[in-house]
Amino acid sequence: MNDSEIFLDSFFVARQPVFHTDWAIWGYELLFRNSEDSRFADIGDEDAATSQVIADGFGLIQEDIIEGQRLLVNFPRNMLLEEAAAGMLPPEVCVVEILEHVQPEPDVLEALKQLKKSGYTLALDDYVGQKGFEPFIELADIIKVECLGMGRDKLTQITNKLSKYDVTLLAEKVEDSDMFNFCKGLGFELFQGFFFSRPEIIPGKKMSTNNMNRMQLLKSVSGDNFDVDDLTRTINSDVSISYRLLRFMNSPTFGLPNTINSIQQAIVLLGYKKLAGWLRVILLSDMCSGPAGNELAFLSIKRAKFLELMAADNNCGFLSAESMFLLGLFSLLDVLMGRPMEELLAELPIEDELVKALTGEDGCASLWLDLVRAFEKADWTGLGTLIAENNLSALSIARNHLAAMQWANEVALLNKQE
């Protein structure tokens, strides 16, 4: 392994979606952190390390976005001055994000003007109405306003102040649908936060017949006991699932030497456990609709693969790799289905420790959900604490998360090609 590969393996990369008002995905913010050790100590030249991470991380993620989507990338002061984006990141995709601690000094403003001349879109991060940032606002194309913990009167005051500028407003750290709707009413066009990953339970809402069938099938592959003929009949009764499953089975991901021509053949050749794992992924993806649903499916599938990989590297107590996979896969089931988690899990034959973690109770399984949530929120401090307190390998976590992201993207691409 060369030095570049070692470096690539030792950084954390998180992506957070940015939505339009209609929930279509505008793009993603990429968040990076070097993970040389569990406490994230800086190594060598911080700016050189950041440049390497941004270049490599951007390249890895850029392959997975669709045409027209953008990627927000954070730039510290020195990298702005060195015009690190130029020649390294394409201006038609990369949005240069000015970090909140950067000050509008003359040399910084001149560097930003040069970036704009080169065709880059500029975004100002974490704006909360601070004085003296008018030179940044005049140059920026996007202003990110942090909503978490901010009162509605303050938000209204900030948006009124920004209304005289020709900028697009992005509401960040939007944590619930009420704040999403309030910000939309104020004129925000872009939204970032975890409002889309929280359940919205509507009393009296009924599950569609299609999703009821999916839940029944999901139940049939979530236990240990199965009958090949029964499972074959169940899958064959759903044309969409049958088609999608066979496409998965014959994809390069499986690497099977012979073409699979029937569901029964797939069950016999692959074995129930492997087939059931992939089928759960397909079922979950199929129950999702719309851009937000697709993003939730991606998160669920990525979590499942990440935890499965972590099980191979760590002593997870009595939790098997399959249990860890289920833990991640079902962790957003309540959001996807619009029903309480307790109600959904009562219909699935999964072990008690997973039920406890999925319903918010403390236990040995809850650590792993805390780990994936810290990653997705780019809570590097919290992630570092979890790593240190549980004697985990930062390198293992970084590698496995990156591998899980790539695997989830492959699954997502196969689904899009249906």
Automatic annotation (TrEMBL):
PROSITE patterns: HDOD. Gene3D superfamilies: EAL domain (3.20.20.450), Hypothetical protein af1432 (1.10.3210.10). Transmembrane segments: none annotated. Residues 207-396 form the HDOD domain. This is Diguanylate phosphodiesterase. It comes from Maridesulfovibrio hydrothermalis AM13 = DSM 14728.
